[in-house]
Design goal:
The protein has one domain. Helix content is 79%, strand content 0%. Helix 1 runs antiparallel to helix 2, helix 2 runs antiparallel to helix 10 and helix 7 runs antiparallel to helix 10. It is elongated, with a radius of gyration of 33 Å. The chain starts with a helix and ends with a helix. The model has no long low-confidence stretch (mean pLDDT 86).
């Protein structure tokens, strides 16, 4: 229809009408393009808000996981300290029998928190990280997950330390003592030993376990390595915690600014 009109105007040499028709077409196309772009941007902003909410939820989960890891490392450092104290003075085990029995197998346990990175990996694999318009926030996310990944290179060293200690400590606890700890607390968590009644521990068997422990000079020599391992776990996870809090604050600020 428009083409026919323009053809008629051209035959009539009505150039002003031609110009008007052309302008109408151009303006119409520009308005249509702007409308499409507005809807596209609106969809992107909604998608961005959803991603930011998911990232916040992931980091909040990480905070709990990392705090738990710090608590575990602190507990296991205390286990190593207890074993070193018992090596010097066997009466320490008599005063803290349950802790001693738990410390023998678990002082070398390590726990590396698994971060909730699904949202970030989704955004990175699909190219949707572009939706985050704040480069500083995006950089913090990269640094946060890159730091976590960089620490994975030290896991073989941690496994080596754990395995060496497991070999050295095998047989210190009797089968009955080992079953007792495994059945009560397969993995002891912070605070779980506080309310346990020490009277349930057989004192003669405890004395025998202490004697076996103190006869293992190589095991005792390895205890400072365990303590250092747990301190390293605490330091790394405290750095993770610091970075997680920084990222979480940046995401909250980002979400508030976008609203």
């Amino acid at each position: 229809m428009i083409i026919k009109r323009m053809a008629g105007f051209i035959r009539q040499h009505d150039w002003s009408a031609v110009v008007i028709e052309v302008l109408v077409v151009i303006v119409g196309l520009m308005l249509a393009f702007q409308m499409d772009r507005w809807w596209e941007q609106r969809g992107e902003r909604e998608q961005e808000a959803e991603y930011v909410a998911r990232l916040i939820a992931d980091i909040e989960t990480d905070l709990e996981t990392i705090a738990y890891a710090i608590g575990l490392a602190s507990l296991r450092k205390d286990f190593a300290d207890l074993l070193m104290a018992v090596a010097e003075d066997p009466s320490v085990a008599q005063a803290r029998p349950v802790e001693f029995l738990a410390a023998v197998p678990q002082a070398a346990f390590t726990y590396s928190p698994s971060l909730a990175s699904h949202t970030f990996e989704d955004m990175r694999s699909t190219g949707n990280l572009r939706l985050l318009r704040n480069l500083a926030t995006k950089d913090l996310l990269y640094e946060y997950y890159d730091f976590d990944e960089s620490q994975r290179q030290f896991r073989p060293l941690q496994f080596m330390t754990e395995n060496q200690y497991f070999e050295l400590s095998a047989g210190v606890l009797s089968h009955e003592q080992a079953r007792f700890i495994q059945d009560q607390w397969y993995v002891v968590s912070p605070g779980e030993l506080d309310e346990f009644e020490d009277a349930a521990i057989d004192q003669q068997e405890l004395t025998a376990a202490v004697r076996r422990f103190r006869s293992r000079s190589e095991m005792i020599d390895w205890l400072p390595e365990l303590r250092g391992l747990q301190i390293d776990q605490m330091v790394v996870n405290e750095e993770r915690l610091l970075r997680a809090n920084e990222v979480l604050q940046a995401l909250h600020n980002y979400a508030e600014a976008a609203n």
